[in-house]
Amino acid sequence: MESRISGPALKVGNKTFPLADLSPEALAYCRQIEFCEQQMARLQRELTLLQQVRGDAVVQLPPLLPDTGQTLLRQSRRRLQWPSAPASRARRY
C-alpha cells in the first residue's frame, strides 16, 4: 500500500518526509541547505561569466601591447601576474 504525502516534502534517499512533520531544527537545516545551494548556483554563474570575460581579455590584449605583444611574450620566460590579484597564483599568458 502506497501512502500519499500532501504538501511540501523532503526526499532523502528513497524516503520522503512531509515538511509539516519535521522539527524546527530539521527545518532550519533544510533552509540552510537550500540557501547554500542557491548561493553555489549564483557563484557558479558568476564564475562562468568571469572566466569568459577573462578569456576574452587574454585574447584581446596581445595586439594592444607594444610590438604587437609577441616579442614581449616570447622574450619573457618569467610568469606574469595581474597586479590587482597579488594573492593569486602566477599565471603564464
Topology, element by element:
Layout lengths: L8 E4 L2 E4 L5 H37 L9 H6 L18
Antiparallel strand pairs: 1-2
Provide a quick synopsis of the model:
The protein has 93 residues and is mostly helical. The protein has 2 helices and 2 strands. It starts with 8 loop residues before the first strand and ends in an 18-residue tail after the last helix.
Descriptive labels:
93 residues; mainly alpha; two-stranded antiparallel sheet; 2 strands; rod-shaped
Verbal overview:
- The chain is mostly helical and 93 residues long.
- Helix content is 46%, strand content 9%.
- The model has no long low-confidence stretch (mean pLDDT 78).
- It is rod-shaped and about 70 Å long.
Radius of gyration: 25 Å
Topology, number of strands:
2
Tell me about the biggest sheet?
Answer: 2 strands, antiparallel
Distance between the termini: 64 Å
What is the helix content? 40-55%
| pLDDT < 50 stretches | none
> Which strand order spans the largest sheet, edge to edge or round the barrel?
1-2
Order of H and E elements: EEHH
Shape: rod-shaped
Mean of pLDDT: 78
Helix/strand-derived category reads: mainly alpha
Strand content: 5-15%
Query: Count of helices?
Result: 2
